[in-house]
Amino acid sequence: MKHYTGIIIIGMLCGAIMAAVQYSNVLKSTERRCYDFRFLVRGHIPVNDKIIIIGTDEKALDEIKDPFVFWNPYFAKIITAVAGGGAKAIGIDFLQTISLKDKVAGEDHDGIMADALMEAENVIMINLLRWDKDVNGLKALNPLPRYLYAADPDNIGFSNLTIDRDGCVRRQILLMSDIENNLYAYIGLKVIAKALNSHIEKKGNHILVGDYSIPVNEYNEMRINFAGPSGTIPMLSFYEVWEMASQENEDFFKEHFQDKIVLIGPGNIYSQDFKPTPYYRSKQYSGTPQTLGVEIIANTINTILQRNFIVPQEEWQTMAIIVFLGILTSFIAFQLPPAIGGFAAFAVLSIFVFISIMLFIHHTIVLPLICPAGSIPLAYTAVFAYRYTVEDKEKRMVKKIFKRYVSKEVVDEILKFPDALNLGGNRVHATILFADIRGFTSLSENTDPQRIVSLLNSYFSVMADIILKNKGTLDKYMGDGILAFFGAPVKREDHAELAVRSAIEMIAGLDTLNKDLNISPPLKIGIGIHSGYAIAGNIGSELKMEYTIVGDAVNTASRIEGVTKELNANILITESTFSQLKNDFNFDFIPEKEVFLRGKMKPIKLYRIE
After folding, report:
1. Is pLDDT above 70 for 401?
2. Can you tell me whether residue 62 is helix, strand or coil?
3. Alpha-carbon 193 to chain mean position
């Protein structure tokens, strides 16, 4: 329970940190880039065939010799022809605030334009809402009153773009008020309302127009689901359309504009009405110009008509995702080694990014990426810092204690199941093995000390390797003697078999050692083995402690080893050990006479291994 509490606490703390970062918006610019990346991965999406743009192209600039400010008659002719062709609504993305009545000899340009607006009856003009520091609020810069009243004062929408701090357009405000509390709608929204012959209504966090319900935030902003980079939405040449209007080609206008929403605006490279969008930032579209303002209007309209709204997550949902990923990563990092845990954390990160992209592509759902993704490496790092300073400190202590006594495999097994280990002491059922060199005292008296030390080191090395290989615990060396036990610290059902197998291999190993080192007279050992209950644990003082085993079973094994001298046997095992042997050994177990051991009231039956 303590383990899982730590997982949850660390995961929640890391999630809370990244949630705070998310709330502070310090990484908002990076998040915007991730938002743009999803558009680039997705690519183009379908465009509603009811939307068409007429752009003032380079050909018009070349062929029409009049300065652009005097193009009112050309606009008027196109508006009249498009309206006559059955267009549902026409949006004009040009703002004229200066009268030309007294500036053009012989022609009333303002009147020509006003007549076309009045005749069409479905033209939406634009205005601009600008900050006026004198009144400390927004004031509307409207087109000529003559145009405004000819088109109908209600047929006006602001063209202000909603631009992020990095200069990119990703969203659009649909409703704004000026200092006089006059409510204005964005031109794209007004054009839709005109095409549907509907009014605009704000209801909760949605703006309603016709049967369209547009999700917006508290600032009346809608995210624009751009269909693609500049040029994605069809754009007709202003000059070619004007030529058709001059030729009074009614079939052309019915074919191209019947029941359509038509936008007329700047469509040439010399226009100053360009803004970057998510697509503009991609190397994939290098050489592609920024998106025209009229194209941004068209993309806004397309988002609404296609009902292809981008749905951001609620703040609480984002926080929940961040905390969940923190806890999930914490759980993974607690369960796995660092390298595998790092790979698993990277896999979680990759899966989250993939899901985020797929949700956007197929369901237009936007999940924040940076802070949720950031909670994964943060939790991973925090967990391993915790493990290194707290949990792994205990493991390092266990390794330090046991690496001298048991094999690496046994140490790994101990660390895998640390709860099964009580370093304070456990009552265990184990098999104890004592081994002692015969006649070592007389050997040491007649042999050079350096030779004795060399022999002992070689002997202990061979014996230790055999014991550790058979998953035994090497307790201590006692002069020329060895104490080892099987069945602790890791519990094993076959501890008796492992001890007997070790004893047999120790005899064989000693024979090989005698031959290899040409030891004369050859070394001989006696081994006593007994199975029973004992206490295994850390025993000692504050100055020195060691993991060892104590108890009557240990004393019995020691005394059995002493009996090997009397019976001239290499290996003696007790009845309690013999009764636990299940596997067949290629050796004979020869019953010996029962013996009385010091301190024992009853005799013990022994078996010699030959």
Report:
1. no
2. helix
3. 43
Is residue 383 within 8 A of residue 330, CB to CB? The reply is yes
Could you identify the residue written with the tokens 């701090």?
Answer: 165
What dihedral do alpha carbons 230, 232, 238, 239 form, nearest 10°?
A: 100
Backbone angles phi, psi at 149, to 5 degrees: -80, -25
Helix (H) or strand (E) holding 328: helix 315-335
| Pairwise CA distance, residues 269 & 146, whole Å | 31
Q: Are 51 and 367 in contact (CB under 8 A)?
A: no
Average pLDDT over residues 260-269: 86
Name 158's bridge partners: 127, 186
User: What is the C-alpha separation between 499 and 501, in angstroms, rounded?
Assistant: 5
Which two three-digit tokens encode residue 212? 């369209």
- Contact of 245 with 78, CB cutoff 8 Å: yes
Q: Please answer whether residues 311 and 205 qualify as being in contact, where contact means their C-beta atoms are separated by less than 8 angstroms.
A: no
The alpha helices in 336-448, defined as continuous H runs, are 338-363, 370-386, 392-402, 408-416, 440-445
Where does the pLDDT of residue 450 fall: very low under 50, low under 70, confident under 90, or very high at 90 and above? confident
Alpha-carbon gap, residue 192 to 398, rounded angstroms: 74
Q: Cα(392)–Cα(414) distance, rounded to whole angstroms?
A: 13
Q: Identify the CA nearest to 595 among candidates 607, 584, 606, 579.
A: 606
What is the 3-class SS of 80-121, one letter each residue?
HHHHHCCCCEEEECCCCCCCCCCCCCCCCHHHHHHHHHHHHC
Whole-Å CA distances, 252 to 86, 242, 260, 298: 11, 11, 13, 22
Q: Name the residue with higher pLDDT: 421 or 254.
A: 254
Q: How many Cβ atoms sit within 10 Å of the Cβ of residue 400?
A: 9
Cα–Cα dist 426/199, whole Å: 83
Cα→Cα distances 401→116, 474, 489, 549, Å: 96, 12, 11, 14
Largest CA distance in the chain: 141
Q: What strand order describes the sheet that includes 162-163?
A: 162-163, 169-173, 221-223
Span 136-156, average pLDDT: 88
Q: Please name the residues in contact with 566: beta carbons below 8 A apart, sequence gap of 6 or more.
A: none
How many Cβ atoms sit within 10 Å of the Cβ of residue 502?
Answer: 25
32-89 per-position pLDDT tens digit: 888 999 998 998 999 999 999 999 888 888 888 888 778 888 999 999 999 999 999 9
Q: What is the dihedral of CA 323, 328, 330, 331, to 10 degrees?
A: 140
- SS3 call for 263: strand
pLDDT for 165-212, tens place per residue? 888 999 999 999 888 888 899 999 999 999 999 999 999 899 999 999
Residue 256 CB coordination number (10 Å)? 19
456: buried, middle or exposed (CB in 10 Å: 19+, 13-18, 0-12)? middle
What are the phi and psi torsion angles at 379 (to 5°)? Answer: -65, -40
Counting residues of the chain whose pLDDT is more than 90, the rounded percentage is 41
Q: Rounded CA gap, 15 and 13, in Å?
A: 5
**H/E/C letters for each residue in 64-79?**
CCCCHHHCHHHHHHHH
Query: 548: helix, coil or strand?
Result: strand
Instruction: Report the distance separating Cα 399 and Cα 406, nearest Å.
Output: 10
Q: Look at residue 186 in the predicted model and tell me its pLDDT.
A: 96
The answer to whether the beta carbons of residues 521 and 468 sit under 8 Å apart is: no
